[in-house]
Design brief:
heterodimer, A: about 110 residues, mainly beta, Immunoglobulin-like, seven-stranded mixed β-sheet, four-stranded antiparallel β-sheet, 11 strands, B: about 110 residues, six-stranded mixed β-sheet, about 55% strand
């Protein structure tokens, strides 16, 4: 059973389009995250949700809108895609939002904007 | 704010040789320290973490790390590497107080050859 799953695994789209990435965790965790990993492998947090409430929003353009319908799901919608949005996006979860917790990562979604 | 520096972007090593991956951090508050590993085309998984107590921390797959507060370092070591250890290794910190917000280093690619 996959702990943290993301769909799709690959996403190729044109500039200006709108796309969504879905994330689900079956670990019963309270907290979920979205990260962006650029072409140089640098990993940066974008958003964090705890029990469906936004707790971290890191200077991300408002074209990116996360949505958490329940605490097991955290989806990422991106409007008006730009070339610079090309990256691998990782979803993660942790038991609680405490700093000591381990985060469990999904397999990633490779987004390519043409 | 926190920052993490991984000085070596790539470390080539022969199988069965020892290896050390270096990590230094900067923070105005106390932090927890983590090492994560990313195998090719996969998400990250936790190798080990330092929360408190003994400064030598043992993790999975024979890895260990030593926390040095005076040098603000958290270097990762393995006495004998295997081909299967070829991966990207990320050092990360999170503040002890408040909610978890992982700040990652730029990663070190460990390349193990026969």
């Amino acid at each position: 059973d996959t702990a943290v799953s993301q769909t799709p695994k690959y996403l190729v789209t044109q500039m200006g389009n709108d796309k969504s990435i879905k994330c689900e965790q079956n670990l019963g965790h309270d907290t979920m995250y979205w990260y962006k990993q650029d072409s140089k492998k640098f990993l940066k947090i974008m958003f964090s949700y705890n029990n469906k409430e936004l707790i971290i929003n890191e200077t991300v353009p408002n074209r990116f809108s996360p949505k958490s319908p329940d605490k097991a799901h955290l989806n990422l919608h991106i409007n008006s895609l730009e070339l610079g949005d090309s990256a691998v996006y990782f979803c993660a979860s942790s038991l609680t939002m405490m700093g000591s917790n381990e985060q469990f990562f999904g397999p990633g979604t490779r987004l390519t904007v043409l | 704010a926190q920052s993490v520096t991984q000085l070596d972007s790539q470390v080539p090593v022969f199988e069965e040789a020892p290896v050390e991956l270096r990590c230094n951090y900067s923070s105005s508050v106390s932090v927890y320290l983590f090492w994560y590993v990313q195998y090719p085309n996969q998400g990250l998984q936790l190798l080990l973490k330092y929360l408190s107590g003994s400064t030598l921390v043992k993790g999975i797959n024979g890895f260990e790390a030593e926390f040095n507060k005076s040098q603000t370092s958290f270097h990762l070591r393995k006495p004998s590497v295997h081909i299967s250890d070829t991966a990207e290794y990320f050092c990360a910190v999170s503040p002890e107080t408040g909610f978890q917000k992982l700040v990652f280093g730029t990663g070190t690619r460990l390349l193990v050859s026969p």
